[in-house]
């Protein structure tokens, strides 16, 4: 999977969980700027991403996943390992 | 049926919600653990079976506060043993048997109060207490297990007709631990259960909820060959088909027939629909030594070479019930597919190819015939219970929330060495959303410099109670300017909300300010999508409100004239008092 494909899938998943349009989400979208990106939705998001990408995040990775870009980085590093 | 991923379920849920026309069944889940994802699974299970439902999740760990005189249709009480007291599963409470007994009694009283307060609800579902996080040892029951056992015995003794006990152990037994719970999520987010657990839970719960609206099924239509018995009677012959307990091929079919017998005794209509010579099938029913079902249990038979959807329609007609109250089982994929295409309202299942899985799979779908069995005896029992409960009412029931809160012996301990907790203070300032006056996010360095500032008081506080410690869960930062004090920060972790601790703290703060000669207290409330309860709180406390041009609200009070409602059931002390 290329980074671009990963990013598309991440944005799609985020859009579903947060009930937003994909067009409103960019790599810069992050937990501080988006009110609904709270800890409850962080649980939903990580569980959904684990399922969509068929992988398991470590706690440190989950803690780091606070923006679209950061999520793509974590996933791409895991997939290329 | 294809399993959907979690995102697909969320998306599908939104689609179904838009389609729904009728009023939703309103379900409230009151839990002492984070069960947020349950909402998605439960709504999906119900909506995808034609029942509009809206699930609310009540504030975390506020069972008593959230359960009085509800306006919902259904209450689900989800209490995990490990969190009946703070960090109970770590075992600290079990050193003192008296405290433990008091806790057991307290939980029973809470449950009893909730049940009594909600006699008007059509349904209250209470989960059993399980042993997750402390299963004990093979030769030694753990104290938590004993507590859970006692509480479960209590649950099963409740005879209020609207109370159903959900045995979570049923799901836990059917899944490997790693599929049912996630220790990773538990340490990260305080949420123990996996989505798979929530999905299984919702699967079983839906039967009871669908039953509320009469949406369960009435008749079960079974194929014969490789569905009631192993083998094909028309080809293999009478002597070669198997359905006996003592043959490996037959045993799964024996078990399924046993379950069918049980259903028939509960009044479920059993029918057969088979492509066979009627004579062959009748001979098996009449004469096969291992055949459990007989003509006395089989209400209707369609044994012919007609297409099955045609037969099933005929069955519905003859029984005078809708095709949507039928369940159909067949081993043949083609037949099952055809039924799903032609009569999608009939719930059609295929016998698994691995027949050793058949009884388990069949059992999972028996809930479709769930009946709220209210017999005359049950009703009588309920009357007895009512009479008895009236006598015991006074001692087993909290009359109001204050009495419940009193029973917890809550204490606030103000930390006088905030410099020892810099990391925790920065963390709660960054993480707390709900009860947070200004939502100012601070780093360690910010906190440090405020502690050093002589015009600022940094007042973190610990909360503890009779049943354990909640830890450092509150922070108040006060700035002084001449005779006015400004609340820069006032926040509390959601773990300790709903206990009037915020009120007790402000009462205490005002007493302090009075001693210091401060005449006025101001608190600037900065609204966020999450923190409305702070504004409500200052309003209820009787502070004056003034809106600013920036969209914030300044709450203020004259220290001298402030006469707060009493919160004397909460003790306040300072950590250096000891």
Overview of the molecule:
The complex is a heterodimer of chains A (81) and B (578). By secondary structure, chain A is mainly alpha-helical. Chain A has one domain (3-79): ACP-like (Non-ribosomal Peptide Synthetase Peptidyl Carrier Protein, Chain A). Helix content of chain A is 60%, strand content 0%. Chain A is built from 4 helices and no strands. The two termini of chain A are 12 Å apart. The mean pLDDT of chain A is 93. In chain B, α2 (38-47) crosses α9. Chain B folds into 3 domains: 6-212, 3-Layer(aba) Sandwich (Rossmann fold); 219-369, HAD superfamily/HAD-like (Rossmann fold, 3-Layer(aba) Sandwich), CATH 3.40.50; 408-574, Aminopeptidase, CATH 3.40.630. The longest helix of chain B has 21 residues, at 97-117. Residues 374-394 of chain B have low confidence and may be disordered. In chain B, strands 11, 12, 13, 14, 15, 16, 17, 18 and 19 form a 9-stranded mixed β-sheet that branches. A 5-stranded parallel β-sheet of chain B has the order 2-1-3-4-5, covered by helices on one side. With 578 residues, chain B is of the alpha/beta class. The interface between A and B is medium-sized, with 20 and 22 residues.
SSE layout and pairings?
The complex is a heterodimer of chains A (81) and B (578).
Chain A lengths: L2 H16 L20 H15 L5 H6 L3 H12 L2
Helix pairs in contact in A: 1-2, 1-4
Chain B lengths: L5 H14 L5 E7 L6 H10 L5 E5 L5 H4 L7 E5 L18 H21 L5 E5 L15 H15 L5 E4 L1 H7 L2 H4 L2 H7 L5 H18 L6 E4 L10 H4 L14 H15 L3 E6 L3 H10 L10 E6 L4 H12 L6 E5 L2 H10 L4 E4 L7 H7 L11 H21 L4 H7 L3 E4 L7 H10 L3 E2 L7 H9 L3 E10 L2 E14 L2 E9 L8 H16 L3 E6 L6 H9 L3 E4 L5 E6 L12 E4 L4
Helix pairs in contact in B: 1-2, 2-9, 4-5, 11-15, 18-19
Poorly predicted segments of chain B: 374-394
CATH architecture of chain A: Orthogonal Bundle
Q: What CATH architecture of the largest domain in chain B would you give?
A: 3-Layer(aba) Sandwich
Q: Summarize the biggest pleated sheet of chain A.
A: none
């Amino acid at each position: 999977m290329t980074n671009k494909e990963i990013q598309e899938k991440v944005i799609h998943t985020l859009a579903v969980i947060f009930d937003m349009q994909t067009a409103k989400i960019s790599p810069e979208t992050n937990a501080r700027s988006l009110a609904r990106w709270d800890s409850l939705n962080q649980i939903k998001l990580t569980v959904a991403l684990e399922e969509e990408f068929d992988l398991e995040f470590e706690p440190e990775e989950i803690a780091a996943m606070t923006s679209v870009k950061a999520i793509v980085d974590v996933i791409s590093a895991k997939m290329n390992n | 049926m294809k399993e959907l991923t979690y995102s697909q379920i969320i998306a599908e849920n939104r689609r179904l919600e838009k389609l729904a026309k009728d009023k939703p069944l309103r379900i409230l889940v009151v839990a002492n653990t984070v069960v947020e994802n349950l909402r998605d699974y439960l709504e999906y299970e119900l909506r995808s079976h034609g029942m509009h439902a809206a699930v609310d999740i009540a504030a975390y760990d506020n069972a008593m506060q959230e359960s009085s005189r509800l306006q919902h249709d259904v209450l689900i009480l989800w209490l995990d043993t490990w969190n009946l007291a703070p960090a109970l599963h770590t075992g600290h409470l079990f050193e003192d048997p008296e405290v433990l007994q008091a806790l057991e009694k307290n939980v029973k009283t809470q449950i009893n109060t909730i049940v009594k307060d909600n006699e008007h609800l059509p349904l209250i579902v209470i989960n059993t207490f399980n042993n997750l996080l402390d299963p004990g040892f093979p030769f030694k029951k753990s104290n938590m297990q004993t507590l859970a056992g006692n509480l479960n015995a209590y649950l099963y003794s409740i005879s209020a007709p609207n109370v159903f006990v959900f045995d979570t152990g049923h799901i836990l037994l059917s899944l490997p631990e790693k599929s049912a719970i996630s220790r990773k999520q538990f340490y990260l987010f305080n949420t123990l259960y996996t989505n798979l657990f929530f999905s299984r839970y919702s699967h079983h719960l839906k039967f009871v909820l669908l039953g509320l609206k009469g949406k369960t099924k009435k008749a079960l239509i079974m194929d014969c060959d490789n569905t009631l018995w192993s083998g094909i009677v028309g080809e293999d012959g009478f002597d070669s088909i198997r359905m006996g307990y003592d043959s490996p091929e037959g045993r799964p079919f024996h078990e399924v027939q046993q379950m069918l017998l049980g259903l028939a005794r509960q009044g479920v209509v059993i029918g057969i629909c088979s492509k066979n010579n009627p004579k062959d099938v009748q001979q098996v029913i009449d004469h096969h030594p291992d055949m459990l079902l007989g003509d006395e249990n089989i209400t209707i038979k369609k044994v012919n070479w007609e297409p099955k959807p045609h037969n099933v329609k005929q069955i519905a007609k003859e029984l005078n019930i809708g095709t949507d109250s039928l369940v159909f089982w067949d081993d043949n994929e083609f037949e099952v597919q055809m039924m799903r295409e032609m009569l999608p309202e009939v719930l059609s299942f295929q016998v698994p190819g691995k027949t050793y899985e058949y009884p388990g799979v069949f059992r999972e779908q028996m809930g479709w015939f769930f009946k709220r069995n209210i017999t005359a005896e049950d009703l009588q029992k309920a009357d007895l219970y009512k009479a008895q409960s009236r006598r015991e009412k006074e001692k087993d029931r909290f009359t109001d929330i204050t009495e419940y809160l009193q029973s917890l012996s809550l204490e606030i301990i103000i930390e006088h060495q905030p410099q020892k907790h810099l990391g925790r203070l920065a963390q709660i300032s960054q993480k707390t959303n709900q009860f947070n006056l200004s939502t100012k996010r601070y780093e360690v360095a910010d906190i440090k410099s405020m502690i050093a500032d002589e015009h600022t008081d940094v007042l973190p506080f610990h909360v503890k109670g009779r049943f354990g410690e909640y830890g450092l869960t509150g922070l108040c930062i006060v700035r002084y300017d001449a005779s006015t004090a400004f609340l820069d920060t006032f926040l509390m972790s959601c773990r300790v909300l709903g206990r009037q601790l915020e009120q007790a703290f402000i009462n205490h703060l005002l007493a302090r300010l009075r001693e210091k000669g401060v005449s006025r207290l101001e608190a600037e409330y900065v609204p966020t999508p999450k923190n409305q309860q702070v504004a409500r709180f200052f309003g209820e406390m009787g502070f004056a409100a003034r809106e600013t041009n920036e969209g914030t609200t300044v709450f203020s009070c004259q220290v001298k004239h402030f006469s707060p409602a009493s919160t004397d059931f909460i003790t306040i002390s300072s950590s250096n008092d000891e």
